[in-house]
Amino acid sequence: MNRNESFPASGVSALEINLAWATLEAVTDNVSEIQMLISGNEEDVDDLRVGLTDGILRAEQPAYGLTAHLGMVRWMQVVIRLPMNWKGAVSLNTVAGPLRARGIQGSDVVLRTVSGDLWGSDLHAITLKMRTVTGALNCREARAEKGLLRTVSGSFQLEGARFRNLKLVSASSDLRAEFDEPFETVEANSVAGNIEILAPVEAANITLRKETGRLRTGGVSITDDGPVIRATTVSGILTVTYKEPR
Description:
Number of strands: 21
Helix content: under 10%
Number of helices: 2
Oligomer: single chain
């Protein structure tokens, strides 16, 4: 079953999506309205609650949907198409379903999953937050004044980063962040995973708090001035490497 909903972009200041197991994808496109395209089993599609109240466009999959999905074959996909010039607040959340976001521009952008994989590309925001627990976290070409990327045990990859201030958090996963331009501050915390930072900076104020971890640099000198890197790890290795700017 297919179900299509459309809303005037001028009447929407924020987007808030909460799904259980459905696949969620949000993209910018050459459209004038905010479109929500829903496909799946008739019962599941009908159960998805969609509404616009006080400028907030919400879609919510009932909590029982996660339990009902266990032990049976079900499929549902929610695709959201946003106008290219729309820049409201965005909060996209899934529990077990994968989440993809591409070309999103917003004031505050929040992307969260629990066990579903999370992909983000060409993201622009004042504040960007991406969080997973066991799902993979992959982000490419992201720009923000402030960022928080967090995972517990899922794989982690950040490429083409353009953040002024960024915080990275992991329990057991390796953290790898590749920057396309210099930053002001990076804070990275990992219990057992390694931390790797590649950026077009030749000198940085680097501090590593550790128990058995180590610090390695490649083409980057340690100074009291310049960009600040603060890392904490129990047993991981912090590597800071110079890369050519793009």
